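batch job 7 of whatever, protein = RadC-like JAB domain-containing protein
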Amino acid sequence: METKVNEIAISYSGSIKTKLLPKISSSRDAANLFFEHWDKQNIELFESFKMLLLNNSNKVKGIYTLSTGGITGTLVDIRIVFAVVLKSVTTSIILAHNHPSGTLQPSLPDKSLTEKIKKAGELFDIKVLDHLILTPDGDYFSFADEGIL
């Protein structure tokens, strides 16, 4: 008797030419790009967690929304982070989430999650370049700029 199993297909489709992709050179570049693509009607209502997927030249392959949550938090599954990163053949990432309250300071869970993702990335030679906290007013906090990454 033959055992049946599902076949898994993995794909990534990038239709923009590499020379046209935006390049990230600073936390401000990343924050501006995240703000440009964030839902402005919801940024002060609930938390969302996203990531920029970058190639080896720090050009943006895409933005992926990992989760949306409640007023004071959102759940991020590290396995999904790396499923997306590996599927897109990404070499580095920049994380971002919003604080609807307008508070720029990272919480202990923010710091812990960042550290877990960074350590997991090291196993795959994937760099976590930064983690940004965005506020509805357009301000941001950069883990890298503050030396806590």
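notes: Strands lie at 48-54, 60-68, 92-98, 127-134, 140-142.
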